[in-house]
Amino acid sequence: MTYGKGPAIKDKKVVWITGSSSGIGEALAREYNARGAFVVLSARREELLNKVKSELKHPEHAMVLPLDITKYDAIDEKVEKVMARCGRIDVLINNAGIDYKDWVRNTPLSIYRKVMEVNFFGNIALTLKVLPLMEKTGTGHIACVSSVNGVLSDKCSSAYSAAKHGLHGFYDALRAESPEGITVSLITPGYIRTSITVNSLNGRGRTFGQLSEASLKGMPPEKMAIYVVTRLEKKSPLIFVGGFPERMAILIHDWCPTCFYKLARKLEPEYINTK
Predict the structure, then answer these.
(1) Looking at the domain that runs over 14-266, which CATH code has it been given?
(2) pTM, entire model
(3) What is the end-to-end Cα distance of the chain in Å, rounded?
(4) From 32, 100, 160, 171, active-site residue
């Protein structure tokens, strides 16, 4: 595969963010752009990406690149376009994903496949195309937005947690294999004030359609982005960002697994679409 040799953006860090039409991805794009980076905005809906670009502090330092990460055959072309415009990719942030909430007994295999296609395979597919470019130059940073559910699981999170746990396994292995010049980071957010639960699927493939109370009480995405980008610039391998309940859950899970499992049995899921 031959990549385009466009004029390199020499004075700016090139940051490609998937799922950047809203939520965490949008907040990260805004923060990087405000700090002087050139951002490549990717998601499925071009009109939303154009809106995000128009509202950036430096919209001239941004590129809109519509991308459905489950359409693997189109990824080569998308990488070509970024390389033709920017000359390189300094940071790749795999953020695109979907939420899921339902009981295991209500979840058919088709739903597991759908969630894995987006949250796991689509994520890795882009990494596998960008990684050789970074290895060729000997430098680069690949970051994955996972979740607290990539560390622990609770009720009605089987499909979502399985995909996120898989990402931790993949990126931990990639980090161990990568040469010194390439950084691999896992970002594990807790509750962030985004609209992720609006499109959260249930076992019938229907969406929740509203914000959950936990999301409404979550950390503002702008605050999260400042912290995450600062940690990424320091090349932190694991970045947890969230509130006290999530921190306590991880602490109990790590130090007293039996206590955590007993607690998880008692807690009811915070939101499920029963329709």
Answers:
(1) 3.40.50.720
(2) 0.91
(3) 47
(4) 160
